[in-house]
Amino acid sequence: MAENTISVTVDKTHIVTIGERLYGESVELIRELVNNAYDADASEVRIKISDDEIIISDNGSGMDRKDIEQYFNIGSPHKRLHRKSPKFDRDRIGEFGIGKFAVLSACPYFEVWTKKGDFQAKVVFDKDEWEKSPESWNLPFFAEPVDSEKPDGTVVTLKKLRKKFNLADVERRLIESVPLKAPHFSVFLNDKKVSPRFVPGHRIPFLEGTDFGVVHGEIIITPISRTDAKEAGVECKVKQATIRRDFFGIEKWEIGAARVTGEVNADFLPITSDRSDFIRDSEEYKAFRKVMERVMERVKKTVEELSDFKQNRRTKRVLTEVLERVKDSLFMNPEFCPEGLLPVGEEGKAGEGTPGFTGSGKPGKTERAAAKTEEQPKKKRMKRPSVKPLTPTAVVKRLAAGREGVSCLIDHFGPEGPECETQGTIITINRDHPLHQRAVKDREAYIFYLARLITQEISLMKDPRNPRQAFERQSKLLKDALA
């Protein structure tokens, strides 16, 4: 070696340390081995888990001598250079060539048996034996006579397990992190087929483009009866394998966050070597986040609409009852009515001396006859009030009283928006207001809440310049409405 150079070396214990600490959970090693089988064009993977060993076998393409050497090449770029599998043209999941050593997180000993055509052999990795000779990197290799009865494929056997594996946890992780939906690919755990989980609910598919590639997936809004906070969040996948579950800000939503689940695929995203996260300061990830922000805005609106549809049935019933009560209260207190709500004589009851409301809000015969004999002054055309655009789930009911009536509108105007306001003869109530959110949970409280707001606005219509008298009128109207 020249005096002006130094060698780059790697200590053998470092390889062991990487394998033992590569993943936060030992169950990840099973995921890694199954994904290796997927990359090798396997159509079937069988996992056998017992107390002292784990066997993962596949019917993939198998390996010859050159492939085995490549398999044990630390950090091999083979899959990055050959991104497609030869048989099924699959996008290969593996990238870094270190996942096979993840088995060391659960055991110090594993065997790799493989067959490919007229080649059959077994390689043994024993951590204790391997560490005895720091200078030697060779592993025991056993060539075997080819058994023509056996199909091509690979079997990885983990022995001397240091940890116990819960089958339910393994199945859950496999469902999340291996491409079970891919064609020609099945996984069996202790002879039970692992199937993709079907989540019922309202489905929102999406397909968005970026400068780096396509972002596509499906967001599911589960029914309230099937909501499970543990399943909330969106599985972010690269090449059909889940990297992590993200919430994209839904945890800050006022309602419905626990109902949102689903998956998103973005194969262009760069990931960390342990496959647990993305390279977050990359331009690819920033473009991905912008897309998902737009998608989740659409999802949020849909969640609100679905929540409204159920709540609206009760809201309509309560609002109808409140308006009837307010109408009766106005009937009892005609002197409190604004001009447009002044009671007129009922059809067929003129001359009885009792003012009332017509069912249609139109004057009776006596009033119409009197109107014909008098010259009506020309009225100035009233300017139509400008109203905010309504959401599809807005609740609108009309109080048919007097000649004009009042429309009551309950809709979303934001948590910071006004609790209630009036534009012309339209009373708008903000269902996002914290007081509304609290009152709507109890029917009697909701009746009082809506009655308070409606009588408040009607009282202000009478004389908006004198709020003190308006409060007094409201108190009387509210008492008669709820008595």
Automatic annotation (TrEMBL):
Residues 364-377 have a biased composition (Basic and acidic residues). It holds the Pfam family HATPase_c_3. It comes from the Bacteria. Residues 351-362 have a biased composition (Gly residues). Keywords: ATP-binding, Nucleotide-binding. GO terms for molecular function: ATP binding. Residues 344-386 are annotated as: Disordered. This is ATP-binding protein.
